[in-house]
Known about the structure:
Layout: E1 2-9, E2 18-23, H1 31-41, E3 46-50, E4 59-64, E5 69-70, H2 74-86, E6 93-97, E7 100-107, E8 110-115, E9 120-123, H3 127-133, E10 149-152, E11 157-161, H4 165-169, H5 175-184, E12 193-199, E13 202-209, E14 214-217, H6 221-235, E15 240-245, E16 253-259, E17 267-271, E18 273-281
Parallel strand pairs: 2-3, 4-6, 11-12, 13-15
Antiparallel strand pairs: 1-2, 1-18, 3-4, 4-5, 6-7, 7-8, 8-17, 9-10, 10-11, 12-13, 13-14, 15-16, 16-17
Helix pairs in contact: 3-5
Amino acid sequence: MTRYFVYDVFTDHPFGGNPLAVIPDATNLPEASLQKIAREFNYSETTFVYPAKDPAHTAKVRIFTPTMEIAFAGHPTIGTARALRDEGHMGDMVLELGVGPIPCTFNDGQVAFATSAPLERLAHPDIALVAAALGLPTESVKTATHAPVQASIGLPFVFVELQKGQHLDACAPSIDIIKEGAARHPAGMDFSLLAYTRQGDQVNARMFAPLDNIPEDPATGSAAATLTALLTETQGHPLDLTIRQGVAMGRPSLIHARSDDSTPTRITISGQAVRVMQGELVL
């Protein structure tokens, strides 16, 4: 039988943050079972760990949402690195993901990964469309720093800054409008939306991807990384952000995001993760 662990990621206590299922040794699982297993857990992501192709690296990691395999995501990277560390892998790591090797480091309970993938601006969705997708009036969207933009450093999201915290609290996504957004801007496949407010280095965020069976995500490290890259490029200087997410869901999460002045910008995402369950797949 195959072992699994469940971690809560971007939190330092159980039942906060974003749940993640980790299969620490997936070598004996049939390929046809991977998506079914991810759907059975029904978390925003499940990871399957294999021996690294490059012997200098720690492991190969495949990431599945409930509906598809994806090349990169943040909380699965943090949670899988933490799981491998808890299983006895000492020192820093390099995980082979679909976007390439990702270095992971550990410091005082924090796990961090870094990526220098270039920022891609894929589309500029209409403000009225984005507001309607979030169930908000058009005037709730703030455009002083940037208009709504679909961007990616490995996984696409539509980034929308809102005027006030009340607007963030009031988000009520419309699946029909999100489907329209996905049809107009198919690069993202599911038109995932990251809505946020910002005061200085403090960001409050909510992420919605209902077309991928994720009505709302408690913590989205890949979106945090892309947002940091977007703001760094837009404002022209490095940033050190604290991103709070999952509060409205009762699963508060804390993500630290830092950029530097290299080209392309190097983004470091860090946070904590705790094991809350473990068991065996009976297959």
